[in-house]
């Protein structure tokens, strides 16, 4: 099978200190859907929260709970960028902030072309005014 002949599904997996806080941000703030949720059932398992839009070819998997093996380690360059192809809705940014996000600078390029909000674990979401083809 060649990946050039299909649209593969992308999963972005990240650890989270608090899955309830992450859900408030990604679901309550951004408007993603909960696609899957599970609770650790024994050794070697984790609490999982998968969020995304059902028709999208990607989802975000958040791993947490008492058996979390790695702490979140966000960086300034570790961005999840959503290309909106138009202005960023100020109400959406306020909603993300009320849901536990913090507006931050991601540098001159992204500050010019969008708004960056850190989630409760510190990972950065960029809402870009650009379209994918000119991103």
TrEMBL record:
Determine the domain of life of the protein's source: Bacteria
- Cite the Pfam families for this sequence: YycE-like_C, YycE-like_N
The question of whether Transmembrane is a record keyword is answered with no
Provide the alphabetized UniProt keywords.
Dioxygenase, Oxidoreductase
InterPro entries reported for this sequence: Glyas_Bleomycin-R_OHBP_Dase (IPR029068), VOC_core (IPR037523), YycE-like_C (IPR058997), YycE-like_N (IPR058998)
Domain VOC, chain residue ranges per copy: 6-130
Q: Which GO MF term does the entry hold, naming one?
A: dioxygenase activity
Q: Which PROSITE patterns match?
A: VOC
Q: What protein does this entry describe?
A: Catechol 2,3-dioxygenase
């Amino acid at each position: 099978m060649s990946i050039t002949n299909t649209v593969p599904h992308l999963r972005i997996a990240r650890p989270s200190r608090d899955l309830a806080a992450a859900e408030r941000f990604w679901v309550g703030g951004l408007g993603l859907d909960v696609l899957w949720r599970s609770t650790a059932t024994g050794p070697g398992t984790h609490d999982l929260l998968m969020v995304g839009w059902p028709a999208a070819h990607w989802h975000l998997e958040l791993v947490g709970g008492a058996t979390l093996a790695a702490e979140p380690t966000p960086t300034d360059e570790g961005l999840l960028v959503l290309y909106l192809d138009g202005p960023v809705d100020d109400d959406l940014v306020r909603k993300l902030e009320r849901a536990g996000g913090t507006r931050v600078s991601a540098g001159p390029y992204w500050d010019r072309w969008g708004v960056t909000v850190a989630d409760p674990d510190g990972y950065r979401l960029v809402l870009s005014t650009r379209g994918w083809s000119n991103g």
